Amino acid sequence: MAAVWYLIIGNPLLNVLIALSHTLGGSFGLAIIVLTIIIRLISWPLTKRQLNSTKALQEMQPKIQELQKKYGKNQQKLQQEMMKLYKEAGVNPLGCIWPMLIQFPIWIALYQAIMRALATTPENLLDLAQRLYSWDVVSLEIPLNSHFLGLNLGQTGASQSAGLFLAILVGGTMWVQQKMTQAPSVDPRQESTSRMMLLMMPLMFGFLTLMFPSGLALYWAVSNIVGIITQYFVTGGWGYLKSRSPSRSAPAKGK
Amino acid sequence: MATTLYLDYRMKRPKSLFVVVIALLPLVLVSCSIFGGATVSGGWGGTAFSDGIIYAGTRGGRVVAINSSTQSRQWDYAITPTTAIYTTPIVDGDLVYVGTYSGQVYALTIGQGVERWVYPRTGSIGAIVARPVVANGTIYISSSDGRVYALNTTYGDLKWESEPLAGKLWTSPVIIGDTLYVSTFDGYIYALSTETGELLDWSFASEAGFASSPVIYGDAIYVGSFDRHLYAIEIGNNVTMWKFPQEKQAGNWFWASPIVNEGIVYAGCLDGKLYAIEAKTGEELWEFDTGGPIVSSPLFADNLLIVANEAGNVYVINPNTGGGERIRNSENDSRPTINAQIKASLCAQEGLVYIRAEDNQLYVVDIDKRAVSWNVSLTVEK
């Protein structure tokens, strides 16, 4: 299983990344950025499907909120009615999750490629030898230059001063991307859940940026920025980025 | 994201969502660590033999001395905090020297393994991966901070440290007279003064990085490269004498340092082959396929070439003809000579080859009998 993974995904991605680095004048950071954009282009059909599902769900929000108001006290009925609504609109809420899950192996493959390419330990360097193709552009690029814009891409964000900036960039761009698609809810409980999700994911990835090699965090940051741009053009604008939550904008009820 | 919209609907309580998000964190961490990360196994320090005692660094960060007559441990020294040891110990006078991955050099007495000195006394230099070299009362160390350090062997005092020569130095220096030569991963060979550490006039630049430590024979430096060639470079000249193979590439890098004997270069390659090459011309005399990557340098014992591959097979090769014989596993002939990987440097003495394998055992191979004579565990029972 592992051999098949490396044969089909892991090793080709690794060699393409190194060859790209050579083509781009020996800048491994630039190679990660270009490869991220290429990966986003390849996965464009999936992304488009995800964005369309998001858009459809956004457009259904007024109806969903109506149902929440109507059946708020009867969760079972609410669930039935919402499923009915999704069915009528031809939207599968789970359809939004699959494209995200498919990206997970790509993360893993890219993480492997970055770590193996940088070969920060003797074991990694020895292992790298068995994974490289006999292309000249690959041979001439070893060892890679791990420095990019003040970052050492092979080291964790926590171990370098520029890592904090990268963590803020990853967390910030993730927050913007999520906020663009997160519709406000009239249900205070759901609104609270949304707000927590909106904060938790950027915080988690900000934390991961500090824990993982900066090369991977660079991928996350670029991926988020590309995501924001595509979302802007596909969904038509900044979405819910500037909208305020109804629970905040609504007048407070006295006790 | 759309997922959030869906989860908004599905999640009854914000607490549940919190649990999901927190659960994702270890999932990502575990996945990345399983599927590949920065791995340090414990090192592959080789063996050194002196006065009937075998010295080796263990995977548990210890330096051990094994009495070859009694096949028992004479002493062991635990380096704290625990670190990997990639360097082969060097014995000089009454001290044995070991460099650690945590960036320190230890000098221990050969009799009882008592620490004589450690450099630096506080803190560390970059990780030490390559075997240090001792010459004229000085120990020369390549470090992962890209510098070469020269220390007094008696007291461990710093004589000099070079300017950074590369991003990291994982190759051993070579000393000829009062000049130190070192190859770098980014494709340079530098010549330094052994007295001051200053760069001398001559250096060599190659398009491809150098993977192996250099070896000097006559006026030439022989070194393996990341472009799958072995290079012969004339000292003082900026022209490559030859590169091997001449027209095509080898199957992989020449990672192990080559050895030269009577005008012939013997180079082990990660493609599994041992090549015999005419030192002057670069012409191939013969090749022997071991079937597995060769990580450690070959050596001569009883006028025979001994080479081990990563898979654990040990071969005895006639250096004149290139004809070889695999040393068989006494328990199961279908298995490799040793039931563990071999990455560490070997050493030989009086017909016996001493191998520290990746199962943290010391194996002793008898060349005459073509068999593993005995083995001893280097793991310390706690």
In short:
Chain A is mostly helical.
SSE arrangement:
The complex is a heterodimer of chains A (255) and B (382).
Chain A: H1 2-23, H2 28-42, H3 44-59, H4 61-71, H5 75-89, H6 97-118, H7 122-129, H8 136-139, E1 147-148, E2 151-152, H9 162-181, H10 188-211, H11 214-234, H12 246-249
Helix pairs in contact in A: 1-2, 1-6, 2-11, 3-6, 4-5, 6-7, 9-10, 9-11
Chain B: H1 2-10, H2 14-34, E1 47-50, E2 53-57, E3 62-67, E4 72-78, E5 90-92, E6 95-99, E7 105-109, E8 115-119, E9 133-135, E10 138-142, E11 148-152, E12 158-161, E13 174-176, E14 179-183, E15 188-193, E16 199-205, E17 215-217, E18 220-224, E19 230-234, E20 240-244, E21 259-261, E22 264-268, E23 273-278, E24 284-289, E25 299-301, E26 304-308, E27 314-317, E28 324-326, E29 347-349, E30 352-356, E31 361-366, E32 371-377
Antiparallel strand pairs in B: 1-2, 2-3, 3-4, 5-6, 6-7, 7-8, 9-10, 10-11, 11-12, 13-14, 14-15, 15-16, 17-18, 18-19, 19-20, 21-22, 22-23, 23-24, 25-26, 26-27, 27-28, 29-30, 30-31, 31-32
Write a structural description.
The complex is a heterodimer of chains A (255) and B (382). Chain A is an all-alpha fold and 255 residues long. Chain A has helices at residues 2-23, 28-42, 44-59, 61-71, 75-89, 97-118, 122-129, 136-139, 162-181, 188-211, 214-234, 246-249, and strands spanning 147-148, 151-152. Chain A has one domain (2-243). Helix content of chain A is 71%, strand content 2%. In chain A, strands 1-2 form a two-stranded antiparallel sheet. Residues 247-255 of chain A have low confidence and may be disordered. Chain B is mainly beta. Chain B has 2 helices and 32 strands. Chain B has helices at residues 2-10, 14-34, and strands at residues 47-50, 53-57, 62-67, 72-78, 90-92, 95-99, 105-109, 115-119, 133-135, 138-142, 148-152, 158-161, 174-176, 179-183, 188-193, 199-205, 215-217, 220-224, 230-234, 240-244, 259-261, 264-268, 273-278, 284-289, 299-301, 304-308, 314-317, 324-326, 347-349, 352-356, 361-366, 371-377. The chains are: A mainly alpha (255), B mainly beta (382). Chains A and B meet through helix 3, helix 6, helix 7, helix 9 and helix 10 of A and helix 1 and helix 2 of B.
